[in-house]
Amino acid sequence: MECCGEVRAIDIQGNVAWLATSQGLAAYDISNPLEPTYLDSMGGEYGQNIDGETMWWDMDLSDVHVQGGWAYATTVNNESGFALLVTFNISDPAAIMNTRRLFDEAFVDLGEIDVVGDRAYLTSKVSPVMIVDVEDPQSTKLIAKASANGSGQ
Fold first, then answer.
1. Selection from 48, 58, 70 nearest residue 21 by Cα
2. What contacts 55, CB < 8 A, 6 or more positions away?
3. How far is 89 from 70, CA to CA, in rounded Å?
4. How far, in whole angstroms, is CA 4 from its chain's centroid?
5. Where does the pLDDT of residue 1 fall: very low under 50, low under 70, confident under 90, or very high at 90 and above?
6. Inter-residue contact 54 to 65 (CB < 8 Å)
7. Alpha-carbon span 50 to 103, nearest angstrom
8. Is the dihedral of CA 120, 10, 36, 87 positive or negative?
9. Phi-psi domain of 21 (left: phi exceeds 0; alpha: psi -120 through 50; beta: other)
10. 3-state DSSP assignment of residue 137
């Protein structure tokens, strides 16, 4: 499958361009800038039980940040109005693996994501700053969020 719907964001690591698209995460080899080459993509649908009800998300990504062998991406809101933080194992760009999906009720209209060290920083309509522990990318967890009035939680 070549790329993948609407491209919403890009992050570069080495000779690979990582694209957040409306159908998931895509990788292109850009070592030859005159001929980018498609490597792989990962998309699909995901269901999660929240308070006894299954909520569904498409891997419709809005932003991506790459660090080491991991890509952290935010989804657009699902039909219930919530988004996800998705972690991909990208140690082999030709075989992307979706390894973790993190949900929180503050994940509404997620904006940009940035990762520094073992912390991911997110913005949303509900909270201007949210901090996620990504020390173990396969077990990410929200550790702090600021309310719209500026206080922390």
1. 58
2. 47, 48, 78, 80, 82, 103
3. 5
4. 15
5. very low
6. no
7. 9
8. positive
9. beta
10. helix
Strand partners, 11: 18
Of 81, 101, 98, the residue nearest 141 (C-alpha): 101
Helix (H, G, I), strand (E, B) or coil at 33: coil
Enter the tokens of residue 127: 């909270």
Give residue-wise pLDDT tens across range 46-70: 676 667 777 777 788 999 999 999 9
- What single-letter DSSP state applies at residue 76? P
Return the pLDDT at 58: 75
What single-letter amino acid sits at 107?
F
- In angstroms, the CA 66 to CA 11 distance is 6
The overall longest dimension of the chain from CA atoms, in Å, is 51
> Taking the model in full, what pTM does it have?
0.88
Query: Is the CB of residue 30 less than 8 Å from the CB of residue 67?
Result: no
The per-type count for the chain, helices as H runs and strands as E runs, is 0, 14
Residue whose token pair is 């996620």? 132
Separation of alpha carbons 92 and 40, rounded Å:
10
